[in-house]
């Protein structure tokens, strides 16, 4: 039986270079109109009883190649459970092997989250009591930018994710957050709904997610560098969300992402904005400290370098929202590797733990609002 390598599906990305015996050479396809690439997701069929070695030959040119050391590829046979497999990076090539005891296996950079699952989630949550659904706008290719809203309080909380579509952990976090917020028996959710109106945008970049992009929309634009001046031509996704924010204001905001290199969960704040005050920043730092005290799935030791005074990049949403609205805004980063302070040797950082972290984030938010 011939080996079949296929990525012609929602979020698929790989190109076959060649098969030589039990060695399969591959390359990751670039984001459209862009040089970004690193996300991969493909299916292998016809290899039952064989051990195949896969080599991604262009891994060394990926956007964040410095993140490959220590990384382990995810593999699944049922598309429900994704385990890590031994992976090696050397001389610009990412290599991993798999013993096939099934007819089909799937491989991915991280556990994928399909647009079909997103549609199911949005529909299910929209039917929950007290939830309103709004279409804020459309992507370049005409896909809806969904927003789910709930709560009766005066504060406005915005949760949004997947500006970078290959960071699928953000979608799993959003699923966990929405499930908790709509749980009628959850005390933290009750407190948040009483004190705030919560606006949740589960996927800001549906085109990129469907295309299997790492970082950009269908026009090759990095949405998290558009918040200073979004346009209908380049970044209608950001324009739609920011326009809605202008109508409500923003008191708290969490932008959910994934990081290729750092093996831990962490927050990035808005240091360096022109309107920075220590009092404003202290509210952000208090949130992070409380979250770290609440769960072993979060830490404050590792993270990004802080911007110097006056040097914040205002094209990024966290900085723009803090500057424009005085919001306590933050970027949550989750790893493609594992959360080293509390590792899982089988699955690494996983969908279930993304959802658990979302619950802890909301519990912490309930304390502070």
Mind sketching the topology for me?
Elements: E1 4-6, E2 15-20, E3 23-27, E4 41-45, E5 51-56, E6 73-76, E7 83-85, E8 87-90, E9 93-99, E10 104-108, H1 115-126, E11 132-138, E12 144-150, E13 155-161, H2 169-181, H3 187-195, E14 196-201, H4 206-211, H5 236-248, E15 252-259, E16 266-268, H6 278-294, H7 317-325, E17 328-335, H8 351-368
Parallel strand pairs: 3-5, 13-14, 13-15, 15-17
Antiparallel strand pairs: 1-4, 2-3, 4-10, 5-9, 6-7, 6-10, 8-9, 11-12, 12-14, 16-17
Protein name: Carboxypeptidase family protein
Domain Peptidase M14: 111-369
Pfam families: Pepdidase_M14_N, Peptidase_M14
Descriptive overview:
The chain is of the alpha+beta class and 369 residues long. The chain is 26% helix and 25% strand. It is built from 8 helices and 17 strands. The strands form 3 sheets. Strands 11-12-14-13-15-17-16 form a 7-stranded mixed β-sheet, sandwiched between helices. Strand 2 and strand 3 form a beta hairpin. Helix 2 (169-181) packs across helix 8 (351-368) and helix 3 (187-195) crosses helix 8. It starts with a strand and ends with a helix. GO terms for molecular function: metallocarboxypeptidase activity; zinc ion binding. Residues 111-369 form the Peptidase M14 domain.
